[in-house]
Amino acid sequence: MKLACSSIIVNHIYGLFVVACTVGIDSLLIFLSYTLILRTVLSIASRLERLRALNTCVSHMCAVLLFYIPMIGLSLVHRFGEHLPHMVHLLMSYVYLLVPPLMNPIVYSIKTKQIRQRIAKKFEFIKSLRCFQ
Question: Where is the protein found, in the record's own terms (predicted)?
């Protein structure tokens, strides 16, 4: 594309259109499914069961956002970031490849009560160490 003699803006717009349609259709279907899930969850009689189901939905939404936000950022940097340093392109590609799989277990495991308690205990220990300095 760098060797083209004419403007390649049509290629950029087409690529952005494909990404926007893909993300748009996915987002629309995810939104519709979560609307149906939310409607079903709110019809549950037990308050505790409603909260438990909503807690699961929040974790799933965080996982979806962890996937889509880096993907959108990478596609925008790739399409419109010709003037940006090469390091920005590399950094965004690493974020896209590494952040979702690394954060996904954290998102789903933070719901476990024992793990939350251990993390809180570690932070309390670190906080107590700072008091001694």
Answer: Membrane
